[in-house]
Amino acid sequence: MSPEKREKLKIMIEAIKEAIVREEESALFYLNKSKAEHFEELNSLFKSLANLELEHKKDLERLLIEYESQLNSHEKE
Description:
77 residues, mainly alpha, 2 helices, rod-shaped
């Protein structure tokens, strides 16, 4: 793997790590909002949004594992 490709992978990995943190923070925000509202419909909406954020976080974590694996396998070469 070229040094440029390795550097791109490292940058992508860092960007994904940051995105994972933001997704988690967003999910926590929505979960907290769902507990604070007095309307059941709004609570349900916030819980749904939190679940979407957590699903997106899982997708990002899978992508992170894939990129880290690529980087590790090429660094061993």
